[in-house]
């Protein structure tokens, strides 16, 4: 292992040993603030708990983003390094999502002489709906472009297309009664089944998916169920397709309930904006240039997942996410190679130094 690999690994291992499931990021924030203070960079916290730092330099300013929270099971992580690959001990996730992103950023800022004006943003609560990015104090930043280090893909991959996501909660209101006289009640479970059969959640096509992920209803085998609650989502690369599917959902729900003298409620839980960049886009060309200069091959990909980049786009900052080598995220098999921690840091170093942004 090279000296640089050892150093970036050390930062990463220290980070993953700090517990930080969503909502408990404070100690990671303290670590980052202290780390930056050591190298004379002042970082601040906004009122929501996100960490923001500015490094003054030349050229168009760029934001680098990673999130501080991790998914469960993520308490008491005991990382081990086997043949240059970091894993957990098999009881927890590793937390490379997204502490590998943080480690690579911190290492790059410390070691690769940066000349560009750079802002660093470390968010809280990404894993529970990008809440940190949603509530970030954007008055504390000034860049118009951002790179998020948070795609589950090899180093060199740029997520150029990310979906629009509509998450919803619904309710079917029937009429209760005794199971011996079904004529007197309206069973919400039956109506839900009818709805599900028509809506058919799952793959819509290559560019869109839907899901019903939670259902609650009923209490007893001899009671006609009068209420079913459910949660789901629709994802589509194209906003028009999302709108079409959203209308279809409402139409089917409305038809199934009306026909059976029941009622329904449908509430939007969240609406995430997607993005779609052309390869010729300035930001894509800039990021691709950095990747090439760091010695990696550039790959462009569509991903069905959202990241903080979607929220930044919604706030008017051109953002995208890049891969950094992590594997099997959100599982106890999660891992990352030490060479990828350094490789990502090299890419970041080139972005902080390289060709101009616009
Ligand atoms: Zn993540």
Which features does this protein show?
alpha+beta; Alpha-Beta Plaits; 5-stranded antiparallel sheet; 358 residues
What does this protein structure show overall?
This protein has 358 residues and is an alpha+beta fold. The protein folds into two domains: 3-162 and 274-353, Zn peptidases (Aminopeptidase), CATH 3.40.630; 164-272, Alpha-Beta Plaits. 32% of the residues lie in helices and 30% in strands. It is built from nine helices and 19 strands. The chain has helices at residues 3-16, 26-38, 96-111, 131-135, 188-199, 239-259, 282-293, 308-314, 338-353, and strands spanning 43-45, 51-55, 58-67, 80-82, 85-87, 116-123, 145-151, 157-162, 164-173, 177-178, 202-205, 208-217, 223-224, 227-236, 263-272, 275-276, 299-302, 318-323, 335-337. The radius of gyration is 23 Å and the shape is elongated. The mean pLDDT is 96. The structure holds zinc ion. Zinc ion binds at residues 67, 97-98, 126, 150. The site of zinc ion (ZN) has 5 residues, from helix 3.
């Amino acid at each position: 292992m090279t000296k640089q690999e050892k150093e970036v690994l050390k930062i990463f291992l220290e980070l993953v040993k700090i517990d930080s499931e969503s909502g408990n990021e404070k100690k990671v924030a303290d670590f980052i603030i202290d780390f930056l203070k050591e190298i004379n960079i002042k970082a601040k916290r906004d009122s929501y708990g996100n960490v923001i730092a500015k490094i003054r330099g030349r050229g168009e300013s760029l934001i680098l983003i990673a999130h501080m929270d991790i998914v469960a099971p993520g308490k008491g992580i005991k990382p081990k390094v086997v043949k240059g690959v970091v894993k957990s001990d098999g009881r927890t996730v590793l937390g490379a999502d997204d502490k590998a992103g943080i480690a690579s950023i911190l290492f790059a800022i410390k070691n690769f002489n940066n000349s560009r004006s750079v802002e660093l943003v470390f968010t809280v609560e990404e894993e529970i709906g990008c809440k940190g990015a949603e509530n970030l104090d954007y008055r504390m930043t000034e860049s118009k472009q951002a790179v998020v280090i948070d795609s589950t893909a090899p180093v060199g991959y740029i997520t150029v297309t990310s979906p629009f996501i509509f998450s919803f909660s619904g309710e079917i209101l029937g009429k209760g009664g005794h199971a011996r006289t079904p004529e007197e009640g309206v069973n919400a479970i039956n109506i839900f089944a009818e709805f599900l059969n028509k809506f058919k959640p799952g793959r819509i096509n290559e560019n869109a998916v839907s899901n019903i992920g939670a259902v609650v209803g009923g209490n007893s085998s001899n009671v006609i169920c009068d209420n079913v609650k459910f949660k789901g989502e629709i994802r589509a690369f194209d906003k028009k397709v999302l709108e079409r599917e959203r209308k279809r959902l409402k139409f089917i729900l409305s038809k199934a309930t009306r026909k059976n003298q029941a009622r329904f409620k449908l509430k939007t839980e969240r609406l995430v904006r997607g993005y779609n960049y052309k390869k010729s886009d300035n930001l894509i060309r800039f990021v691709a240039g950095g990747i090439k200069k760091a010695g990696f091959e550039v790959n462009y990909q569509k991903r069905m997942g959202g990241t903080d980049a979607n929220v930044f786009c919604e706030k008017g900052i051109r953002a995208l996410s890049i891969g950094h080598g992590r594997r099997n995220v959100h599982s106890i098999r999660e891992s990352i190679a030490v060479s990828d921690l350094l490789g990502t840091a090299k890419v970041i170093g080139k972005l902080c130094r390289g060709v101009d942004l616009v």
